[in-house]
Structure formats: structure tokens, C-alpha cells
Amino acid sequence: LILHDAKQNAIAAIHAGWRGAVAGILGYVIEHMGATFGTSACDLQLFVGPSAKSCCYQVKEDFVSSISSEFLTRVVNKKNGAWY
């Protein structure tokens, strides 16, 4: 993830795997940018880089259980008894 604040001329690059995302790394970085650079969340642009796709990246049950039920079908697929 790349966060850009054009008003404060600040950029943050974040590697956020699923555990970091669930743990709130994005919110932490936004708060840190606010404290360090005076960034306001409403001034940020977010750029999302490549990510794993459900067609070819197998995940374990701990990942599946971390996803809110309202998003589950958008994030994972079950094929041949395994989650992707």
C-alpha cells in the first residue's frame, strides 16, 4: 500500500499482509503520519499494489476465520476441500 498526502508532501509505503491488515496497520500508519507530518486522513490518496488472488493462492482456516462474513464470498473460494 502507498499513502500519499500532497498537502504535506508525505508518503508512506506499507507492506500489509493479511495479519497486518487485520491488526490495523493502515490505521496505525495514518495516525503516525498525522502525528509526524500533520496529515489528515481526508487528504490521503491510497494506491494498492498487486495482491494474491483466490484463483491460485491457498490459505488456511485462520485466514478464513478472520474475514467478516459479509465479505467472505468476495475474498475466498473453496475448491476441492481447500480455501483459496
List the helices and strands and how they pair.
Elements: E1 2-5, E2 10-13, H1 18-23, H2 25-37, E3 44-47, H3 61-65, H4 72-75, E4 78-79, E5 82-83
Antiparallel strand pairs: 1-2, 1-3, 4-5
Give the N-terminus to C-terminus distance in angstroms.
22 Å
Largest sheet: 3 strands, antiparallel
Low-confidence stretches: none
Helix content: 25-40%
Number of helices: 4
Question: What oligomeric arrangement do these chains adopt?
Answer: single chain
How many E-type strands? 5
- For the largest sheet, list the strands in their spatial order: 2-1-3
What's the short story on this structure?
Helices cover 33% and strands 19% of the residues. It has 4 helices and 5 strands; from the N terminus they run ββααβααββ. It is elongated and about 50 Å long.
Protein described:
The chain is an alpha+beta fold and 84 residues long. The strands form two sheets. The chain has a three-stranded antiparallel sheet with strand order 2-1-3, with helices on one face. A two-stranded antiparallel ribbon has the order 4-5. 33% of the residues lie in helices and 19% in strands. It is elongated.
